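Now for one record:
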Amino acid sequence: MDVGEVSELIRSVLSWPVAFLVAILIFRRQIAGALDRLRRFSGGGVQLELDEALASARASADESAGDQAIGPRASLPDGWADRAEDDPSGLILTAWSVLERRMNEAARQVDPQVRTRTAPRGVLAALREAGVVDARFVDAAWNLRLVRNTVAHAPGARPTKEQALSFARTAAQLIGELPTG
């Protein structure tokens, strides 16, 4: 094998990797955009899941409240609306924590033996059996719990400001339906 043949062999072997690298450098912005859209698309299922669960929770809460259903401009506890802009996930986690605490307190009032640490289903069942809440309240709370769990544990779950506000308003409505101390 002479120098010319070796040179031709090297050129033929390396031509496609070099062409590939040149194409990546030329189209890097387009490739980055396509990858970003792909990431958003793969996370879109989570967004759709959040939207569906929030809509179901909202509908159940409105049915549970009847004439007292709150509208989209309902008042929220101090700081919650501001938090939706900066940290939508944090608002969802906070609103759930407050709702869960209030449900636990109400459940302990009707059944001091209820396990409030590990059994949200048991808490909701105790409240329902005691007539404190109706089936629609239970559905709304359960759907909020699903949203909270998705936000807390699903990779790529990034709720929007609107989703966080919807969650917070629904949680605030449910909190308002629970008896106080």
